[in-house]
Design goal:
The chain has 175 residues and is mainly beta. It is built from 2 helices and 11 strands. The chain has helices at residues 2-12, 17-27; strands at residues 32-33, 41-42, 51-59, 65-73, 81-84, 91-97, 116-121, 124-128, 139-144, 150-156, 165-174. A hairpin with a 5-residue loop joins β3 and β4. The protein is elongated, with a radius of gyration of 18 Å.
């Protein structure tokens, strides 16, 4: 909110040194969308162990629209996106949801413990979602990532068909 107020002031006084200095200070702490960060490594981007796409808005199985989404398709237990944080951030928040396009009929197919969305900090498990089958409600999360150098995201969707989608919305990294 402070950034918005300072921006209004800069519209009136664009050359004000004090406002410009304050803007730079606050901007440094503004949360960053995960979908706007570069991945250091990804199994999903080259589709070798899954796939993903950034999508502005996606509806879930309940009809609710989610914004700023990353949608993952299938994925193995060791599939991953890795982001380098350089120990500069303290919190990771977002919502995990099942997109309305997921075919419910395949949720009961047997696989080796699939349907989990996991988040790791320097290879230590920080968060594991409930089993994300088609009847699972969206799940909000907030994780302490203080001191984490590499953040790893994993969607284990069973890797048997393309229909094992999972969505991650409004995923923000904060200082």
């Amino acid at each position: 909110a402070a950034i918005d107020i300072i921006k209004e002031g800069l519209e009136i006084l664009p050359d004000d040194d004090v406002l410009n200095d304050e803007y730079e200070k606050y901007e440094e702490y503004e949360p960053v969308l995960l979908s706007e960060m570069d991945t250091f490594y990804s199994d999903y981007e080259d589709w070798s162990n899954g796939g993903k796409e950034n999508i502005q808005s996606v509806k879930d199985k309940l009809g609710k629209t989610h914004e700023n989404c990353i949608v993952y398709w299938y994925g193995y237990e060791d599939s991953k996106d890795i982001y380098v944080l350089d120990k500069k951030y303290s919190k990771f928040t977002g919502t995990i949801f099942v997109p309305d396009s997921r075919q419910s009929k395949i949720d009961d197919w047997y696989h080796d413990d699939p349907y989990y969305f996991s988040i790791y900090g320097d290879d230590k498990l920080l968060y594991k979602s409930p089993k994300m089958i088609s009847t699972q409600y969206p799940v909000d999360f907030s994780i302490d990532i203080s001191g984490v150098d590499q953040l790893k995201i994993n969607w284990n969707g069973g890797a048997c068909t393309w229909d094992y989608e999972i969505g991650l919305s409004n995923a923000y990294i904060s200082k």
